[in-house]
Structures are given as structure tokens and as C-alpha cells.
Protein 1
Amino acid sequence: MSTTQLDSKSYGQYNAKAYSAGSPTSPLAPTIIARRDPGEQDVRLEILFCGICHSDLHQVRNEWSVMPTVYPCIPGHEIIGRVTHVGSAVTKFKPGDIAAVGCLVDSDGSCPECHAGLEQFCPNMILTYNSPDVHLGGMTYGGYSESIVVKEHFVFSVPSNLDLAGAAPLLCAGITTYSPMRHWGVTKGKKVGVVGLGGLGHMAVKFAHALGAHTVVFTTSPNKKDDALSLGAEEVVLSHDADQMNKHASSFDFILDAVSAEHDVNAYVQLLSRDGNITLVGGVDKPHAVSAFGLLLKRRSISGSVIGSIVETQEMLDFCGKHNIAADVEVIPIQKVNEAYERLLKSNVKYRFSIDMKSLKSS
Amino acid sequence: MSTTQLDSKSYGQYNAKAYSAGSPTSPLAPTIIARRDPGEQDVRLEILFCGICHSDLHQVRNEWSVMPTVYPCIPGHEIIGRVTHVGSAVTKFKPGDIAAVGCLVDSDGSCPECHAGLEQFCPNMILTYNSPDVHLGGMTYGGYSESIVVKEHFVFSVPSNLDLAGAAPLLCAGITTYSPMRHWGVTKGKKVGVVGLGGLGHMAVKFAHALGAHTVVFTTSPNKKDDALSLGAEEVVLSHDADQMNKHASSFDFILDAVSAEHDVNAYVQLLSRDGNITLVGGVDKPHAVSAFGLLLKRRSISGSVIGSIVETQEMLDFCGKHNIAADVEVIPIQKVNEAYERLLKSNVKYRFSIDMKSLKSS
């Protein structure tokens, strides 16, 4: 298959509309960016939906000391699109297919992590945004954009039964919660906790339930109880109620901590059974205070997890197709993205914003 | 076999010389304690050597908020002795045998942990000292004593080739370091770090080396380098030298952190490879500051471990017999125990004190 003719403005690249931030304090605003023409291994997508991840907000505002932001920053790594062009060596996709792109667009392919099929740990991985762009120079630009060009290996097939707006957040919120559950053996018969019922947490509840675990949601908001139950939780615990917490002492096989604000991790460590694990997926910049005794006395562990591998992300999407799982989303036009960020800070969304990217055509 | 005649001062119990602390600020001093007559499942040992564990000092001075001390406190849980009397149902031991007792003297035998053969996690386990004594009332009394009476299940056989003074610390320092190495899969081909070259750390080096791992010692003391190498380490890293530390970034499969003073755990987390684990065995009361990103980006984990099971402790002693491993000890009379505590606080011992308990006869 030969590369389809591209509407490039100059040889090797073309222009695309996008929304970018120019500084930590600037609102996102319309801009024009360059995308490369697809090479022989590349797939070009017209972006249909892009989820808004809390990471987008952290990165745009340069809130992570370990990953400083280079401006302009075009965020977005929960991308659903329609294939418009494919390179000559592409075999999995053809124009018209619905496909997806997540947090990674490349890795070195040669390190032990890549050989182990764990691209998310490749020391030279290229993130979908705010990583060096080896093709065009500058930094990679994410999904708040008309289109994107990505190496086939990093493009996923999307099960045909999934709602596309709701499928977008699977590419980060989905895999980020699915991967540690698979890694730490969440199955039927296990007792699993989910801390925080936001974008990640609500996906974690759906996955834990679908994997057959007895699922308990921890929340600070009594008014989230009914929602938690309807998402698939068997129990809801108010985390500031010591009596409710104590009833669950030393009883959990696994807890997924999806809170990205400062909080007391020890309170959850105490709820783990012997050999129980709590995995952090929230990028909290300030260190957690962790009691050694909480870990020692029951051989408990605290770990972290970050997205998942390419193979695992496809597995997750297929699992979602089989169980008809997508994120609960509020669909917005790109023009409302700054307002959405403010609402995200107040957890005022059930549970994820998904940008309908056709709105960008009119911006 | 019938119970041997006991020198009990009153029915059901007898008196024994011991050293006890009367308050958090009192020195240890001679006293007389009651021991029970052996029941049919019990073994009575004349104590030959008792190691001095850092836990003894913490407990005597009531420094652990999670385990408050009841006074008088008679510490000691690294006990080597000669069997003098056995109950009628005892099958593994006979008078004259050399045997050992560690940190546990009983557990409920009926909980899931006991059924799993993991008595160290039994919620009703009885510690060798400072636990409720169900036989005589009051609290259990440890090994700074002439003799002890313990249920057979919690008494170990000691390989005949081991030096008895050096074998005593195996019962806590030994199993505490051996158990997590076995649990986290330390074998030939793994790169293993040991933080802190004290009582626990020097045992960890011996075990990691004997298990075939490439063993690296982290220390703040340049003058410990030669000792670390002679104990079996392949490399020694000065932990306050950032360049030396950075050379080992993301390279360790497992690190055993044996430091029981406040220190920066994140510095070692950064040295773990993907899926690497650092296990804390030091009981530091103040919480550790743990960076979430350090865990997230390589799926690393921090865990704790506490002693080991009864089966595993016997396995460890047998491993020590096979590899001729014992602690490096300075043998002292019981009369020097308070001085030894002060030296322990300054890490002024290579690497463990072992009390020659025959000294108690003259006190």
C-alpha cells in the first residue's frame, strides 16, 4: 500500500489546527502546528475525540518538577480518530478505520524494556506531548489537534461496539488503572479498594468489578455513594470516618490509589492484608509520609504504576469491547477546554471530559 | 518421655536469674523472674548465649509508639541454649541438645496466617518478650535470663558446626534479612544492595553473597569498605557521594534497607530497576518521605518485612549450617549490657553483641 497523497503545505510536513498553552499561566488558545507527513510505518489520524487527563493540566501548568514543560505545549494523550493516511509498510490499519493513540508515540525498540514488551519503561520513550520530536525538531504535540501522525506500533484498534467519546479516556485513565490490576493479580475472590472516584478511579471501579473482585470505593464525598455503587462497587467507605475505615483493617488484597492530591497513604496501608499491595497512580509531587511499621508488620508493599505497555493497552481495549466498558464522559467543544480545566480542579465532572474535536474546525 | 524433674520453687513455676529494665530510663539490672514448669509440649533451655538486638534497646527505652513497653522488661530474642527438660509430648528435642529460640514463643495456631505457616503474621502471636504471658500472667520475659520455657513448635535445632555465640544473632538479625531475600527472589544473577552495615546489614551481605547475588553495600563510613568486601560484598558505595550513587541508578533488583535511623529512602528507590523492590527491615518510628514518581516511573515497590516463619527460620539455620554462616560477634558478660547499649547507639560493634549467659550465674 502506498502512502496516500497528503495535503502538506511544504515537503515533509503539513499544518494542523490545534490548541496550545504558551506559558504556565496562559489559557489554552487556538494555534497552527506542523505535523510530519506519514513515513512508511506511520498512520495519520483525523482526531475525533480527545480526553482531558489531569496530567494535561499538570503539564500545561508546569506542576511536575520531574517533567518540566517546554512551551508551547499542546496536550492530549487520550486520542480516538479515523485513519486518513497510512504509510507503505503499515499492515494493521487502512483509511477509514477507527483507531486510537495513548501516551506514547515511540520508544527505542532496542532496550531491554522494549524487548520485554514494556515500552512504558523504555528510557528513550517518546511521550505523545512534551517529548523531543525527532522528526520535526521541537517537542511532540498531543491530541488537542485536528490530526496526528504516529508510528503504527503505537496505534491501537478500537472495538466497534464502543462509544467513541467514552473510549478516548481508556487510552490513559483506562490503561493506567487496568495495568496495575493485572500486574498485581486482581481476579475473582480478591478484595480490591479504589481510592478517589474521579477520572481514573471510576475506570478502576469498572475494571475491578469486571475482573470479578469485591470492589470497595473510598471517597471523601458522601454524595458519591450512589454513583460508586452504580459503577460496580459493592461497598463505599467514607475515608474520613475512622470507624468505617477500621472495619476494613487488614482486609484488602489490593488498593489502587488514584488520588493526585496530597493525602495520607498510611490510612490505606493499614487496610491491606498480609502481602497486600497499594499501587499509586497519582502523580503527587510532594513526597508521601509512609510508616515503616505499616509495611513491616504484614509484609505489605507500596508501589507505583504508569500507563501500560502497547500489548497491554490493546488487551485493555479488547477487554473493554468484550465487557462494553467505556469512560463516563461529558463531551465538550474545544472552546470550553479552559473552563473544563477549572472544573477539573474542583472535581466537577462525571468523570472525564472528552473533547469533540470537530469543534476545532470552527475555531 | 516424661517431664524431667524441675527445680521449681513453687508448684508450676520456678525462679530464674535475669536482667531487667524497670523504666525507659533505668539501666538493666539483676533481678529474679518466674518461669513456668514445662508443660507436655514445652522445652526448657539453659540459655548459653543471647544476642543483643537493636529492638531490645528500642523496647527497653519504650521508643516504639506502636508497641508500648510494659515494665519490668526483660529483653532478648536471639537465644541459644542447651535443652535441660522436655515435656512428655516433645519429639524433636531431648536434654543435652543445643537449640534456639527467636522472636516468637507462641501463636494461635488456628488463624489463616498460622495455617499458611506464617506465624510471624498471626494476630495473636506471642513475642518472646513484652507480650502477654498466658501461663503466668504479666508479660513474657526474654533471653537475658538463665533459662526459658518454650513450646516445642517455636524451638529450633542448631546445626552442630556453628559457633554458638555467633549463632545467637541468626534468630533475629539472621531471619530478618534472610526472609525478605527469599521472598523477593534473591538468587544468582541478581544485583542486590544492602543499606547499612550493622547487625542486620552484615548478615544480609553474607546471605546475599551465599545466595549467589552480586552484592553491593551502601554505607556512610569509608572505613567499612574493607570489612564489607571481606563479608562478601562485590562493591561498596558511599551513600552520601552522589556520583557513586548515580552510577548505580535503576540497576538493582532488590535492596534490603537495614537502617533503623531516619534516612532518605528515595535515594535508594532511584537505584532500583523496573519492578525492583526495596524492603525495609528497620523499625523507624518517624514516617519515611516517599516520592510517588520514584515508584511510578519504573513500577518499583517499597515493602516491609518482619522476621520470618518458624519453618523458614529452621530453613535459614540449616542454610547457615551448610554455608557455615554465623554472625560476627563480640562476646560480652551480662554485666556489660548497659555499656553495650551505649556502644550500639554509636554503631560501635562488629557486628553484634552476644551475651555469654554463664556470666549471669555470678551476678
Protein 2
Amino acid sequence: MGADSDTVTIGSLTLQGFAADLLRAGGFTADQAQQTAAMLVWANLRGADSHGVLRIPRYVEMVQLGLINPSAEPRQVSGKGAVAVLDADRAPGAVAMNLAARTAMQLSDVHGIGWCAVRSISHAGAIGYYVQQAAQAGRVGIAMTASKPLMIYHGSSAEGVSTNPIAIAAPTTNPDRPLVLDMSTASVALGKIMAARDGGQTIPAGWGVDADGRETTDPRKVKAVLPMSGPKGSGLSLMIEVLASVLTGNPLIAVALAGGGDPGGNGLVAVLDPSAFGEDFPIEVDRLGAAIKGLPPAAGSERVYLPGERGFEEMERRSRAGIPLVQGTRSRLLALASKLKVAVPEGLT
Amino acid sequence: MGADSDTVTIGSLTLQGFAADLLRAGGFTADQAQQTAAMLVWANLRGADSHGVLRIPRYVEMVQLGLINPSAEPRQVSGKGAVAVLDADRAPGAVAMNLAARTAMQLSDVHGIGWCAVRSISHAGAIGYYVQQAAQAGRVGIAMTASKPLMIYHGSSAEGVSTNPIAIAAPTTNPDRPLVLDMSTASVALGKIMAARDGGQTIPAGWGVDADGRETTDPRKVKAVLPMSGPKGSGLSLMIEVLASVLTGNPLIAVALAGGGDPGGNGLVAVLDPSAFGEDFPIEVDRLGAAIKGLPPAAGSERVYLPGERGFEEMERRSRAGIPLVQGTRSRLLALASKLKVAVPEGLT
């Protein structure tokens, strides 16, 4: 007996259908529910459960709170040439970011590059999802998203910037295995600090600070997460705020630090068309990947991994074997299903 | 007596003239020497002495070795719409990157964004220099450069990627104070490890590895530098190689790891025109900067700094008081001047 005995495993398509049903019953339109469920289950398939279906109860709550607007009609508010700026009117994050990715892709058809920024989105989820679409179409994708202060700004004792992530993807000759870098600008995922707390371990210096803004190695005392490599992480996060928020006329950090309410989020997707660069690109990306994988593993490591590779391997495993849902996630989804009168798939009850 | 007594201080314009004379005598054309000297002295002015005039003897050596080509005639080799790809034919790095910045700026006039990649450059120097030019013209600049393996790839014991830097700059309402993020993807500058070695101190885990590829806290044992935040730094560096090198048909990492010779370098500059985004951008960047500077300083810190701010303050100090040249740098420059029969400015002898 143990945690495993409380974990059920469910097929990804079944889970995606259930997720879409829950979102639909929670106020999303059918199309919004479908797009959002696909993004969430993609994260679960890749092992990024923190960005998977466990988010659904909060998304439904956000509809009730007016933080997600199912009636949103995203529209272009400005742009020029290869640049488009959209206002998502607080549409679900996956819907807004999918639209930005499609728009950037179309712009890159004409201009070699497309840059689509989208303001007033809600939670974007795992942003690797949006750049991977570009890579699977043979393009290079770059995505960034911005949200409210969640992380210490280097040199300050306060949360002054978000953990703003950046993702970059490039195609290889295998459409199922692009390179997909997807990283936050924080030193570490909050989940790792929580795991050390639960396990009674100390954490390395540089992960978090206590209530006085001092670095601590005691995970029970962590009040805020520190940026990746000090000024690099908080500086990069700040410049993502400039690119995704300030440029699009929806500043989040300045408003939040001045005491404003929840400012939502912003995102951007840039797409490059390798044919504009004139090279046999995916073959050369293969060569690069092979060279990296040929490096000697570090002591204690068995293999060298490419960006995104662990996720793709987990995706193959979970596509076959199903997605494990821990007790806490499952019970919260079942409670939501009961409340919204949504049918629960067999195997999940 | 001490290090200070061996340091002379020289006015920036005098130093820039001397630097240009040395480069000219070392084989650069007058224009190449002028562009390169301006970039090097900019780095000195900002306190980044490791990227300043101390590079000149190596640059002259690189001309002799054929690694810098003073006869280079950079030309466009491909492109489409907002994208241009140049081949710099091993022109001096500052010349190639200035050209890329100008080209990206012109493209952004027409398309809202310009993306100019330039292959076969030589050492680019402090890449904040190129994006700062965009910011001073009211644009947003993004630059990246790629070079040969210099840093451990996360999960490997070997140097598999470079310390590829990224720089992002945005204008404020003060043309002399844009935001300028300029960071490498390494955990720490090699100079900090050398300083700990000279000072007999230990270094934190995560900075470097020994000859066996194991992390060490003994700076005397460091054989290679580790990436910023493990997989984040090496993953970002790898994707910069994809964007700057693989896309432009001049792969560096795959070639170097296969035992090829010195592959030179590649770079890119992207420029965004805020007017395409339709917002009163510099004023909003000011607001963001003011909000960040209003955060409470960390314990032990007196102030919170914006990206690039320390460099601008140093620049103001050194513009007035002159640039300090330590004994080692000065003697190497004087030796080069003697060898090349270049007149040495008063105050430097």
C-alpha cells in the first residue's frame, strides 16, 4: 500500500474528453473546452502534472470570478507588417495562445517571421505546447508569457516579478521529436520546494527566501522563490514583461506593484520560417542533437538529454500506459463532476 | 602601495583613439578599427573590463591567424520579408554585428520587426552594445551570439555548448538610460572563479566542474564552467546555437564536437518597432522601472538595480574620471604599440 494504491491510471483520450466535459459544464464554450483540455492533457502526457488537469477546478472558479471570460471575442488591436497585437478579452489561455501561434505562423508565411503578442489572456498553461505546434509544422517557435509578481526581484526582499517562462522549439526530421526548451525564470519549481518540505529535507541556497527576504535552506520557512541565477532570472523575467505586457499596452507588474487588482496575463508567440533562411534546417538540427547526445554522461547520469526529450519519452509511455492521476487530483475532479453533473468515465470512480 | 598604484586612468576618447590606432596597425581597416574600438571602450566605460581593450592583442593575433579577415565584404546570402541572413566572411565582430543591427533596424521600419542573422563573424564582444543602439533609437533590440563549446552541457561531463549570451534592451524616456539586459548562459563569469582562486576562497556548488566532470567548490580544480541553473542554461545556449548557427547554415557545435577546427562565430539581432504595437512605450517602461526600484532592498543591499543600470552609472563615473587600466592590460597594450610602432598617448606610458 502507499501513494500508488491511491493513484488510478486513465487513457489520455478518455481523460481529455472528461476534462473537456468539465470545462464545458463549468462555463467554457465547446471549442474553448476542447482547446484547453488538449493543452492540459498534453502536459499530463509529458509528465508535467503540475500543468495538467489538476488546474481544471481553478479554471472553473476563474470563470465564476470573471477572471476567465467564455464570451470573449479576441480581436486584433494593432500591428504592422510581420507584427500583430491581439486583445484576448480574458479568453481561456489556451484559446488565446493557440490564436497567437496561428497568427504568428500565418505572418511568417509572408514575412519570414511573424510576431504575435496577445494581451489580456488568462492562465496559458505549459507554453511548450504552443511552440511545439510551430516545430511540428517545420517552423521555429518562440513563446513567452507574463503574469503578476510571484518571484523575488534580485537585490530586493519582495516579489517584484513573475516567474515568466520562455519556450523555444525547433523541428528535427522526426515530427514527434522536435527540440522543445520550456523553462521558467525561477531558480526552481515551487513543487520541488514543497517536496523537500514534505520529505523533511533541506534545500540548497538560492532557491527561496523567508518572510524577512533572507535566503533559507529550510523549506518550511520559504515564503517566496528566488530567480534563476540571481540577476539573470529576474532580469530576463523583467524583459519578458516588457515584450509581452508593456509593448502591448497591458502592463502587469507596474499595475500590481501599485496595488491594482488581478491584472490577468499576456503572452506572445514568434514564428520563424526556416525556408527564409535558405538552409536544410531539420537535418542540421538532427546533427546538432546527435552531437550533444554523444557527449559523455556526467557521473551518476546514464544519458544526456536534449531539451524536451524527457517529456517526449514520458509522452510515449503515458500514451500507451495511460496517465496516472494521484488521489488528490482525482478527488477534486470527481467533486467538480458531481457539482456540475458531469458523467465520470469508467475507471476514474 | 598595491594594485591601485599600478593602475593608470585615461580619458575614454584618448583610449578609443589609441585602441583604433592599435587595431589599424594590426591590420584592421580604418573603419573596422573605429567600430571595434568604440565597442571595446563602451565595455570599459560600463565597468566590463573583461570585454574591453584587453582584447586588442588577441584581435591582432586573430588577424595574423586568419581568424579575423580585414578584407571581408559581408553580403546578404538569404532572407525574405522581415528576415535577412548575412555572411560576414569573418569580418571583425563589431563590424558584423553593427551591420546586423542596422539591417534589423531598417527591416523593422517596414515590417514592424526585423530579424537579421549574421554568420561567420569573429568575437562579437559585449553584445549589450548592439541592442543599446536599438533602444537609443526608440526600438526594442534582442541580440544573441553563438560560439564553440566552452561550457558543460547539463547531464554531461564535457563541454558541449558555448556560454552563448543573450541581450535585450528597451527604451525609456531617457535615451542615456534604456533597460539593457546582457547575460551569458553560464552560471557565473569565469573571472569570478579566477578571483576566488587568487583570493584562496571556495566557490559555491554549481559554478564549475573538475577534470572528471564532477562539481567542485575548489576554484583551483575548476576545469569547465557549469550552465546557469543546470538544464536551463545549457538548454537556452543550445537553442541560441539553433537560432544563430543552425538556421544560418554555419553550425558551430556539431562541427566542433566532430573535431572540426575553429568554427568562428555567428550572431543575430532582432529589432521591434514599438509604434507597430501602438503604445506610448517608453513612458510605460519608465513606470515599470520606477515600480521595480520602489521594491524594498534585500538585507545587505542599499538599492534595487534595473538591468544595465550599474553599467550606466559606471559609464557616467568613468566618462568624467577616465577609465582605469590595470598594469597587466596596460603593459600588453604598450608592448603591442611598440611592436606595431603606434604612438602611445600621454599618461599611458
